[in-house]
Design brief:
It contains five helices and five strands. The protein is of the alpha+beta class and about 170 residues long. A hairpin with a 5-residue loop joins strand 4 (about 60) and strand 5. Helix 3 (about 85-105) packs across helix 4 (about 115-135). Mean pLDDT is about 80; it is low at about 75-85.
């Protein structure tokens, strides 16, 4: 599996690094890229990409959103990946939680980029607290909906696992 973050433009400009194309990588993850302006290096990068592409296998989702490589037989229960929007949301929540926890405990020095996160989270918590103080239902109804959604999701998952076990 190749997971490079590279780019070549106009046969002169090349980039190699770890930055993903998302806001968290740009502002929160301390990613690093090297930009090289050199014709020889850019040509080598371009050739490496063409070589890698020639040895690559395209992975596609079929109608049931199951992974399969082109030309490969279908497997009855393919392994599922873990890169969907739920895992991205969880990763974002963990980053926020780490920064907020560090602000409370002073266990590490917060970076200047985390100041915006601390201020935004602080304002949001104050606003939610004021809303709940004056309108308690503002907290109760979302908690009921969240609990019901979680319960139904777990019931469905348990049912699917039990049904698959019997097959």
């Amino acid at each position: 599996m190749l997971h490079a973050k590279t780019a070549v433009a106009d046969g002169h400009w090349a980039r190699v690094g770890s930055t993903n194309l998302n806001v968290a990588s740009w502002f929160g993850n301390r990613e690093l890229d090297a930009v090289i302006e050199d014709d020889t290096f850019a040509r080598q990068m371009e050739q490496m990409y063409v070589d890698d592409l020639g040895n690559a296998t395209e992975v596609v989702l079929d109608r049931r959103r199951k992974l399969s490589a082109l030309g490969e037989p279908r497997h009855p229960h393919p392994a599922r990946g873990s890169g969907g929007s739920t895992s991205q949301a969880a990763a974002g929540a963990m980053r926020i939680g780490n920064a907020v926890g560090a602000a409370f405990t002073d266990r590490r020095v917060l970076e200047p980029i985390e100041a915006r996160l601390a201020i935004t989270t602080g304002l949001l918590l104050c606003a939610v607290s004021m809303l709940v103080a004056f309108i308690p239902q503002a907290l109760a109804f979302p908690l009921v909906a969240l609990g019901a959604w979680g319960g139904l999701a777990l019931l469905y998952k348990g049912y699917e696992l039990r049904r698959r076990q019997k097959d």
